[in-house]
Amino acid sequence: MALVDVADLAIEFPLYHHNARSLKQRILASSPLRLKKDEDNRIVVAALRDLTFRIGNGERVALVGPNGAGKTTLLRTIAGVYEPVAGTLRVEGEIGSLIDPAAGMDPLLTGRENVVLRALYRGLTEADGRALADEVAGFAGLGEFFEVPIRGYSAGMSVRLSFAMATAMTPAILLMDEWFLAGDSDFMKKAETRLSKLVTDAEILIIATHDMTIVRKWCTRAIRLEGGRILADGTVDEVLGAETVT
Ligand SMILES: Nc1ncnc2c1ncn2[C@@H]1O[C@H](COP(=O)(O)OP(=O)(O)OP(=O)(O)O)[C@@H](O)[C@H]1O
Residues in domain ABC transporter (predicted)? Predict the structure, then answer.
């Protein structure tokens, strides 16, 4: 049974470590809501504040809201990239993340080596890891680039590799940022079937998106964030109404 359970969660990003006093005063004066001073007298962005929700088995959740609302930060927090400054986060089930293409990969290793390493990390045998790498190579279509260190990849190549890798295994909890759906059109046509299967097979899907067509197609629930807080949480129809874009 997969579960994401969040209570009173807060994430902050320090912006200024040094003592730029007059600048601090000006920033705080012009933006009193989202920027604040922490106990070490640094200016921080309150990226997420007072978040409480629970996502259980079978739920397909869209995170919606304007630029800077906190959608990607929330995905990364659930993925374990950021440590909350307050509150609790409980995740049960293996996470597959389509958020940052090169996350968790070693830039000095080749595409193939990265896949095998990830497979070993997930408890597969080396033979299974090698078989998985062949499968990923076939789908990613990187040709000879699969055999070079990934620091030499273009942004699109990194997306192809991480997409192929993430969709070759079925995670219990799938986290996805919508820009992962914006690869070149030939690749995305090929990717769609594979992605649909992954979305269906995962026990929990959480996707951050501005595209209400995606929300209506894939999701059963929507959480609207604004200014790092939850404004609404309910069924897609309740939260979106007649909306098509945010
Ligand atoms: N690494 C960081 N350092 C400092 N501030 C950050 C960092 N990442 C995000 N923020 C801030 O946190 C807030 C939430 O950003 P986030 O990227 O989560 O928003 P979003 O809803 O995903 O926006 P978008 O729709 O534009 O992708 C914003 O105010 C942003 O400036």
Answer: 33-245
